[in-house]
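Hi support team,

I submitted a single chain yesterday and got back a structure, but I'm not sure I'm reading the token output correctly. Could someone confirm the output below corresponds to the sequence I sent? I've pasted both exactly as they appear in my results page.

Thanks,
R.
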Amino acid sequence: MYRKPWSPTPPIPSPSIPTSPNTIEVTGEGTISAAPDKAIIVLGAVTENVSLTAAQNENARTVTNIVEALLRLSIPKEHIQTTQYSIDIQYNYEDGKQTFRGYKVTHMLQVTVDKIDKTGLVVDTAVKSGANTVSSIQFTLANPEIAYSHALSLAIQNGQFKANTIASTLGVTLHPIPTLVQEMSRTKEPAPYPVAAMYAQMEVTPIQPGELQISALIRAAFTFS
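Hi R., thanks for writing in. Yes, this is the structure output for that exact sequence:
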């Protein structure tokens, strides 16, 4: 009987492992300036009395007067909201002894102003109506996503410029379409700044909104040959 000579089974070739393309990684930054078009004011009334009922009633009357005055300025009712209401017991401390002094009632309102040129008028009106604390004013944008989109576009352009500069310096050809574009961060909301509550001596409190800086940061990867 004829038998075919034995020969080992040829090994199955392993798939080739693709080599990683040459890559340039960069970060891109973009910043634009934008004039704020909305103000958020936090103000209110603090009342103290040895009688809790008296302190509450006085506070309620004051806050009602503030709200009514703001409504007369054409501030929409939905733009006025309570952000804090608290009742605290007050004590005096003398010679290591604690003596009851009375109650403190705090009622804070957040007022959103769509016309920032009225910011000073809103503050003055509230103070004249009984507000005795103005804790902060924050200027922001009604549509921040529009400004951020412009900053993001600048960040991408900046990343492309950096990649081109690196490729040119190395003497290689950059592939213009990135293999990766990753958004790294977004501008935080502008922090409110504290405001003193002594406005009675001024006709109109001069509030300066200035400009907001909106920034975007991206990470991008480009291949080259």
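A quick pointer for reading it: The helical segments are 52-72, 119-128, 144-170. Let us know if anything else looks off.

Best,
Support desk
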